[in-house]
Amino acid sequence: MVMKIITFSFLICLFSKLQGHCKSDINLGFTLPLSAPIEYTPGFIGKAYIMETETSSRREPSFKAALTMESSEYKGRYLCSIQVFFGDVRVWSSGHYTKMYVSNKCIFELTEDGDMRLKRSNKRVGWRSGTSGQGIERLEIQSTGNLVLLDAMNMIKWQSFNFPTDVMLSGQRLDVAMQLTSFPKDSTMFYSFEVLRDKIALFLNLDELKYSYWEYKPIENKTVNFLRLGPKGLDIFDDNSHRIGRIEQPLTRFLAIGNITGNLGLYSYKPDKGKFEATFRAVSNTCDLPVACKPYGICTSSKSCSCIKVMSNGDCNSNEEEWLSMKRLCDHEMVELEGVTTVLRNGTEARNVSKERCEELCKKDCECRGASYSVSEESCVMYGVVMGVKEIERESGLSYMVKIPKGVRLSDEKSNVRKWVVGLVGGIDALVILLLLSGFGFYYIRKRRKSLSQPQPQLQEEPIAE
Hints:
Keywords: Disulfide bond, Glycoprotein, Membrane, Signal, Transmembrane, Transmembrane helix. The chain is mainly beta. The protein folds into 3 domains: 1-163, Bulb-type lectin domain (Agglutinin, subunit A, Orthogonal Prism), CATH 2.90.10.10; 164-284, Agglutinin, subunit A, CATH 2.90.10; 288-451, Hepatocyte Growth Factor. The chain has 5 helices and 34 strands. The strands form 8 sheets. Strands 3, 4, 5, 6 and 7 form a 5-stranded antiparallel sheet that branches. A 5-stranded antiparallel sheet has the order 28-34-31-32-30. The radius of gyration is 26 Å and the shape is globular. The model is unreliable at 1-11, 14-21 and 409-461 (pLDDT under 50).
């Protein structure tokens, strides 16, 4: 049933082409309904392609605009949106921020007064461009993938480039205070790629908490005004439109934030493989990603995940929302994890303080869950989450502390608790070597495979958010 619906959706555009309507633009008064099975069907995806660009090269796919319906987990309803595809890759969606749910029918309409709308079967409008009465003549998908509403003078009155999602296309511009966002499935946190006056950066966002985990600053601390993605890579410009920086990557077609790892990638098309591939990633090391491991996990030097099992309820296999939902930790103690730090930045900072004072500051702050301390800078940075923790050289002069409930011990001595936690961090790899040398390697590996609670984190190929 699903395949029949999807096949019919493709034929809508094919039939229209024969009539001369499915070009790169459509005129006022155009209406297109799209229906889903009356009985809710999980996994259903229906697409009705309404416009397509003419590509000058057969070695690269075209852009297409489509009316889409997808199954959702919200009350057995379907998501309805207008989407732009670059080949098979979704690069823009009207439903990125505002979700429109329908029972079994979605209607696309370009009204006679120039408003682009999505309506439900009861004619109620769920999304609109808000361009009524502005002299709109037609809707067009341009060769850059920009979906635009044009007037009689070919002036742009509305464009999808002004409403960025998780993808930035070649030719698109992002000004200061604009951002790309990517939302992991079934999570309250999200990632953002933001243009600031002094840098561009990737952020992990959770409620009111916001921490960066990758940054790029232009040369000589120059002020950033906007970005533009071009065929040579991502260019950074100042207030006078002078280029002050570039992340160079030839033949770049789009930039995207992955909705699993939160990594930023520049993508080019590989004709021999028939797909887009990342030719640049902002974060090249797995352990430098904020979600390489689950909350209260540590990414080790062998790129496996170790667990900080110091919580009275649950462990690192618990649902991440349980960890993230614990808002206030007041009557707790601090324990230091030697040889680890966090990749997160922009926490609450206190300078010219001792390690003991740093520990006390976090302990008294009910919103603080962990803190990093730099001996050389006498700097304390406090965080509201325990994430992005990774193993480092013990002689680095950095230390990391986490808050634990009072009374959580493996023994009566605090030093033993610290030793136990540190053992989880650094002892695994050393233990492997020791057992192998002593002739118990095979036994250990078999036992470890059975008891290992967390798989090795891997960077994943993820051109766009699903």
